[in-house]
Hints:
single chain, 9 helices, about 0% strand, globular
Amino acid sequence: MKQNRTRxxxxxxxxxxxxxxxxxxxxxxxxxxxxxxxxxxxxxxFTDIYVLTQYVFELRVQHFLDTNGNxxxxxxGFLTLAANLSNDRQAILNIYHGYGKxxxxxxxxxxxxxxxxxxxTRYAQNMDIxxxxxxxxxxxxxxxxxxxxxxxINNGMEGDYSRKLDIALTALMPVLRANCRSAKAAAAADR
Length: 191
């Protein structure tokens, strides 16, 4: 239990610092001073700040899914996330300005894939979709979300990301529905 509290405290302190500093300006010492622990404790949990960054955002996505995961459609799940991204605007921009484009893109890809995988898998759990088809659908949504998110971040997170995402999701929904219908039809034919 104490280990989880310490890990959470380090993550919370880091997110508070990200609202004021770019990632390249945040040191392990700043994080440990904010928590009141040693550098050794930090390195027990995380190999570096970049690993902590990934952990923080995976934790936030998981918390988001746990508290907002009862959406009826994939579209609703993605749009709810988009609305929540604005809450972390300054932290995201501080990662962007401190990470470097290549590292930010890797991180954004991993986060987009993680989120798309969670949402699509949850949505499709009661549908008979072949694993390779499900993987293709996840990849399509990840690519779309990643591209739009990088474009939005590159533009200083200005403009209405939710609206643009909604247009893209509306265009993609027939693809997901068609795959679900064809999977159900194939399953019915096998009976």
